User: Fold Apolipoprotein acyltransferase from Thalassovita gelatinovora.
Amino acid sequence: MIVIVGAVLGAIFGVVLAKRRSGKGLDILQYAVGYAIFFMIIGLFITIFIHRSAV
Assistant:
């Protein structure tokens, strides 16, 4: 669940950042995908940490 939320938030953050920097369509897509992957990895590590701590 945290991974999915991270992907959505990362994509939104990437779109906003690319639009603020006057990016074109493919620039916006690249930023959205890049930040979504980055936030998914962070969410994955948080999920692993929570599961390891709970057991």
Q: What stands out?
A: The two ends are 18 Å apart (CA to CA). Residues 2-50 form one domain. The mean pLDDT is 96. The chain is about 90% helix and 0% strand.
